[in-house]
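Figure 6 in text form: structure in, sequence out.
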């Protein structure tokens, strides 16, 4: 018998991780629905079932708060409250939302959702129109983006801010070491980490960093999820979140055109976000976009791959500088193909520890899109080929060593399978 193809195996992962309304990232380590995971999952699911991909996003936005935020975790009531920490009892979302189901966290994650919604529509416009997919989702997407531009402009510069490393999507990046050092950690004896039940401690954040994450999350919860920057010891203007919002607004213009709304405000928002990124964060000396500490004004994380992800922004005037950084010694993208999550030449680079160096498939997908957007078709093909080969060799792992391709983290990881499935289809 012929072995299943890569695409068939990827489809199998997505089907196995489907829970009736949404997809878990990994059955053991992440047994609930995660926000930006679901956006990437929809990109792959649209090649399996466009209706299911639409349902993935609809399920997530069904948990949207009245202030517009899309919570980074939607808890599955069928899963044990002890299966993941911090669980629903920690976040107490009902105290703010007045709604006991679904229970959610109060943090957010990067806004890939409008991009996923538009690509999901394109996979099967007839089904989407028959179900009213975009007309129903569009006002929710607008409210989500409004929350980010109004409530999360922490520095008053037009950039999107985050109040916890988990909100960046790049939880354990060395970029956050500076502001995190100011946060007094909750002692490890006062909480039980569930991630270490399913993953090696050498691949996960340290107890010290996890204690700081818990402190920040508890402080945010106890403030009633206030977004006033003075309430947060960690407040950062993030290039990845801002860039993805710009790309999402570009998708919103297409969605608006499809449903008969005015695309003009979305196009103007792309222009505004692009200008804010370049004017406020771009560093020509290093050819990258560092994050910025709202409290100190210090630039953070020159070595993070987040600094080159703004290639996804249409019409970015500094794209050539980012391409030079991507192909230079710090990332060696033309040579390796796999995008290291942190500067290969930095002493903090780690091939296997969560977000401190390993390559992630969703970041590779974003870079492929950004490279094509700016005419680097050959380099996009190199990245695409490297991602496919890594999945073929290592399986659908959470992340891989960018130098050897060795797999790390969770197995049968949903967004890895989804991204691979999308890369196997013609763009």
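Output sequence:
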């Amino acid at each position: 018998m012929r072995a299943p193809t890569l695409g068939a195996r990827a489809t199998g992962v997505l089907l196995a991780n489907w829970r009736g309304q949404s997809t878990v990232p990994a059955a053991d380590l992440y047994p609930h629905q995660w926000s930006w995971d679901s956006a990437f999952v929809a990109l792959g699911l649209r090649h399996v079932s466009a209706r299911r991909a639409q349902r993935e996003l609809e399920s997530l936005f069904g948990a949207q708060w009245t202030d517009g935020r899309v919570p980074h975790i939607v808890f599955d009531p069928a899963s044990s409250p002890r299966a993941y920490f911090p669980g629903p009892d920690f976040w107490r979302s009902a105290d703010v939302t007045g709604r006991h189901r679904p229970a959610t966290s109060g943090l957010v994650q990067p806004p890939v959702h409008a991009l996923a919604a538009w690509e999901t529509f394109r996979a099967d416009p007839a089904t989407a129109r028959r179900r009213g997919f975009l007309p129903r989702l569009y006002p929710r997407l607008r409210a989500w983006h409004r929350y980010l531009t109004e409530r999360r402009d922490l520095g008053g510069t037009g950039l999107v801010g985050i109040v916890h490393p988990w909100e960046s999507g790049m939880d354990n990046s060395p970029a956050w070491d500076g502001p995190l050092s100011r946060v007094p950690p909750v002692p490890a004896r006062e909480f039980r980490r569930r991630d270490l039940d399913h993953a090696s401690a050498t691949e996960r954040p340290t107890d010290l960093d996890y204690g700081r994450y818990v402190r920040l999350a508890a402080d945010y919860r106890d403030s009633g999820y206030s977004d006033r920057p003075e309430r947060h010891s960690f407040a950062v203007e993030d290039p990845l979140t801002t860039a993805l919002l710009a790309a999402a607004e570009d998708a919103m213009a297409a969605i608006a055109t499809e449903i008969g709304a005015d695309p003009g405000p979305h196009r103007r928002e792309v222009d505004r976000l692009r200008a804010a990124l370049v004017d406020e964060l771009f560093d020509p000396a290093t050819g990258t976009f560092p994050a910025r500490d709202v409290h100190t004004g210090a630039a953070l994380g020159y070595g993070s791959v987040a600094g080159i992800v703004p290639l996804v922004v249409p019409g970015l005037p500094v794209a050539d500088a980012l391409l030079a950084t991507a192909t230079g010694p710090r990332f060696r993208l033309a040579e390796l193909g796999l995008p290291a999550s942190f500067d290969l030449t930095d002493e903090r680079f780690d091939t296997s520890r969560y977000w401190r160096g390993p390559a992630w498939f969703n970041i590779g997908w974003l870079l492929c899109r950004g490279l094509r957007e700016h005419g680097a078709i050959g380099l996009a093909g190199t990245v695409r080929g490297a991602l496919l080969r890594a999945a073929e060799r290592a399986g659908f792992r959470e992340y891989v060593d960018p130098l050897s391709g060795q797999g790390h983290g969770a197995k049968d990881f949903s967004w890895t399978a989804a991204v691979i499935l999308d890369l196997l289809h013609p763009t």
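Caption detail: Residues 35 and 162 are 15 Å apart (CA to CA).
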